[in-house]
Amino acid sequence: MKSVKVLMGMAVGIACLAATALPSAAANPAHLRQLLETKSCASCDLSGADLSGLDLSGTNLQGANLNGAKLLRTDLSAANLSRSSAIGARMHGAKLTQANLQHADLTLTGLVLADLQLADLRNANLLGANLESAQMVGAKLDNSRQTMAGLLRMQQANNPDGPIPLDVMGVNLRDADLRNASLSRSSLEGADLAGANLTNADLRFAKLDGANVVNAHLDHAQLQGTVLANRKEATLAPQARRQ
Questions:
Q1: Distance CA 196, CA 186 (A)
Q2: Which of 145, 105, 140 has the alpha carbon at shortest distance from 120?
């Protein structure tokens, strides 16, 4: 089992890889016009687009390419982002309440202070994503994972001669509000959950090897089959269920 310290050190390497893998090309202008005029742009190429502050609530972006896009404080509530790729996108402060992010690739995506309450992130790729202080009450993260596949595909397309990265994990969920969230069978090895509120969360059979759970709140959490590193330093109430 890799330690959190080693995983954090490796994260520097993967960030450098992302910088070389991300293309410099701008979004497809026709696709951008379609998005703004119709709020429906499934499978569109919006890579690198600046969509900050826009009202894109309810928009259909299923399968869209949002790699490297800028969506600071963008309203994406109830939007369909399933199977989209947002590698390296900046979505800090974005509103994603009830958004559909199933199977989305959020590798190295910045989501600090984002509102993801009741969002559906089942089977999403959270490799290196930054969700610090995000609001995630009632969010679904079942079977979420951390995989290099999307980043490797991007590297092959844009920098095939670049170095092959090491296997790095460690989504940042520090101080995130995950009350009533569902994280069953999620792969969150090396995750930073320090100070996170996991009250009433479903963590059954979640993989948290090497995770930092210092000062995490686990009152009434469901922990059947879950291995929690640093459990002694977490706020593990008697009501937490480890059946």
A1: 16
A2: 140
**Three-state SS for 32?**
helix
Q: Name residue, tokens 């991007």.
A: 154
Distance from C-alpha of 108 to C-alpha of 117, rounded to nearest angstrom: 20
The one-letter amino acid code at 50 reads: D
Extended strands (E) in the chain: 207-208, 227-228
Q: What is the pLDDT of residues 11-50, one digit of tens each?
A: 444 444 454 445 445 789 999 999 999 999 999 999 999 9
Please give the Cα distance from 28 to 86 (Å, whole number): 15
Q: Could you say which residues of the chain have pLDDT below 70? A: 1-25, 155-156, 159-169, 229-243
The per-residue pLDDT for 239 is 54
- Give the span between the Cα atoms of 144 and 154, in whole angstroms: 20
Which residue's structure tokens are 């994603």?
96
